[in-house]
Amino acid sequence: MAVTPIGTTTVTAISRRLILPKITDNIYGSNPLFYRWNRMNKFVVKGGFQIEIPLMYTKMQGSQWYSGYQVLNITPTDSVQNGALGWAQLQVAVTVDGLTLLRASSNEAIVDYIATQFKQAEMDIADNLGFGLWSDGIANPLATVGLYAAVDNGNVAASYEGIAHSSNSWWNAQIDSSTTTMGTAALQSLFGSCTSGGRSPTIIVSNQANYNRYYALNLASQQFPVQPGGRDQQMAQAGFENQLFNGVPWMVDSHAAPSVTNGLTAVETGGPWFLNESYFEYVVSERANCNLRDFQSPPNQDAMTALLLWAGQLTCSNISRQGGFTALTG
Q1: Residue 207 in domain
Q2: What is the pLDDT of residue 276?
Q3: Is residue 1 over pLDDT 70?
Q4: Which of 92, 285, 300, 316 could form a disulfide with 121 if both were Cys (CB 3.0 to 4.6 A apart)?
Q5: Is residue 293 part of a domain?
Q6: Average pLDDT in the 179-195 region?
Q7: What is the number of alpha carbons within 13 Å of residue 155 lying toward its C-beta?
Q8: Is residue 61 part of a domain?
Q9: How many domains does the chain have?
Q10: CA distance linking residue 133 with residue 24, whole number of Å
Q11: What CATH number corresponds to the domain at position 43?
C-alpha cells in the first residue's frame, strides 16, 4: 500500500488557494521596471523554437517626388530583418520532508511553514529575475539577455539578437563613455541623442549613487532650502520614489550596478540608463509565467517538492533610441 507523507493533501490544497495568487504580483512588483513592464510591456506567448523580433532597419527605396509622365521609382526594398533570442528558464524549488510535516502536524502550522517557504521562493526568483533584467548575456549564458546587452554599441557584446554592432551602425545604442562627472548638460545631450521626433526616453534608471548625484544637482538649483520637487505620482504610489528629468521619471534599481554576485563586467556601471519602453517587450511563456506546479513526492523518499517556474526573454526592437552613461564616478 502506497504511503503518502503526512500533510501532502492539505499542503497542496491550501498552498494553491492561499499562496499562488500572490506570487506573480509579488515578483513583478519587486522593482520599477518589472512593475511597469508587467502592466505595459509584458507579452505572454504559448512558445516557439526561439523568439523572433522583426526589425525595420532602413527606409523604403521606392519613394520620390515626381511630375507628369516621369518614370516612377519601383525599386523593391528589403527593409526588415529579424533578430532572435533563445528562451531563458528559471526555477525555484520548495521542498519539505515528512519529518518536518510531522512536527508541523496541525493545518495552521503546515500553512505557516509552507507560506514562509514560498515567501523565500518569491524573493529568490524576483532577485534572479532582477539580475537577469540587467544581464549582459555573457557572464551567465543561461540567463535572460538583459539591458546591459540591449543598451550597447559593441563595448559589452559584439552582437545583440544575432546582429553584429560593427557592421550595422543602426544597431547601436547612444553610449556616453567619456563623461565622468554628472551635469545637466551631459544629461540633456544624451537625452537628445536618444530622442527622435516625438519618441524620447520614457524612463530613466540608475543605481542609488547616481540617483543621489542627480538629486544633489536639483537641490543646488533650488532657490529655497527644500528638497527637489516633481515626481511620477503613479510610480510613487506603487512605492517607487522618483525624480523627473524632462518630465521622465528617474528611479533606482538596486540591480543596476556591477558586483561580484551578478558577474557583470567593469564596463557595465550604474547608469543612468535612458530607456524608451515602446521598443521593449518582456516576453513570457504561458506555461512558465511564475507558475506553481503541484507538490510531487519521489517514490524513494518521504518528501515532496513544488517547483516555481519562469521562462521568457527581454527583447528590444530599436537599440538606437536607448542610451546610457558608463563612466560616471562623481
Answers
A1: yes
A2: 94
A3: no
A4: 92
A5: yes
A6: 94
A7: 20
A8: no
A9: 1
A10: 16
A11: 3.90.1690
